[in-house]
Amino acid sequence: MLADPVDVVRDHARAKAHSVADDVGDRPVLGVDTEVVLDGQIFGKPADASDAEQMLERLSGKTHAVVSGLCLHTPAWEVVEHEETSVTFRELTPRDLAAYVGSGEWEGRAGAYAIQGQGAGLVSRIEGDYLNVVGLPGALLVRLLAERFAGVYGFG
Q1: What are phi and psi of 145, to 5 degrees?
Q2: Which residues 6+ apart lie within 8 Å of 135 measured at CB?
Q3: Active site residue 33
Q4: Weakly modelled stretches of the chain, pLDDT under 50
């Protein structure tokens, strides 16, 4: 049985926030986790160049989801949410794959690509929050801050 990607990213984001919460006192802590999901399968960070190439081959010509969990934690309250963005890759040729994998940009990247770099050339379409694909669901974070700190963030 495949893990629910939303549960995975929310749990990881919460764990990341909690891992540093004791070190910062009363200050808010932000934890975020982002994964690439295709057909229910989570594509984490590739182990090596071969793994990266296999991931990119599977994403080629298809639409996948980028799912991020976000945890905003304080000693008094905590909110855990998620964001999802759809990304469509163009059909990738063997030459495209070799060039991108050879760049090394895939290292440490969920789904083996970085949309904010050379990976932008792999993408033909995006629906949703671009910053979510980069790794921080910016629109979600601003909304949460505006709700929690009206008048400081946003327009409330």
Answers
A1: -65, -40
A2: 32, 34, 68, 110
A3: yes
A4: none
Do the strands 63-73 and 123-127 form a parallel or antiparallel pair, or are they unpaired?
Answer: unpaired
- Cα 98 to Cα 12, 48, 59, 87, 101, distances in angstroms: 32, 13, 15, 21, 5
Please tell me which residue in 7, 11, 22, 33 is annotated as part of the active site: 33
CATH assignment of 5-148, among 3.40.190.10, 3.65.10.10, 3.90.950.10, 3.30.70.270: 3.90.950.10
Q: Would you call 135 exposed, middle or buried from its count of C-beta atoms within 10 A (0-12, 13-18, 19+)?
A: middle
Residue ranges covered by each domain of the chain: 5-148
Gap between the Cα atoms of 59 and 42, Å rounded: 12
Query: What is the H or E stretch that residue 142 is in?
Result: helix 138-148
pLDDT at residue 147 in the model: 86
Residues 107-135 have pLDDT tens digits of: 999 999 999 999 999 999 999 999 999 99
Q: Exposed, middle or buried, 59 (CB in 10 Å: 0-12/13-18/19+)?
A: buried
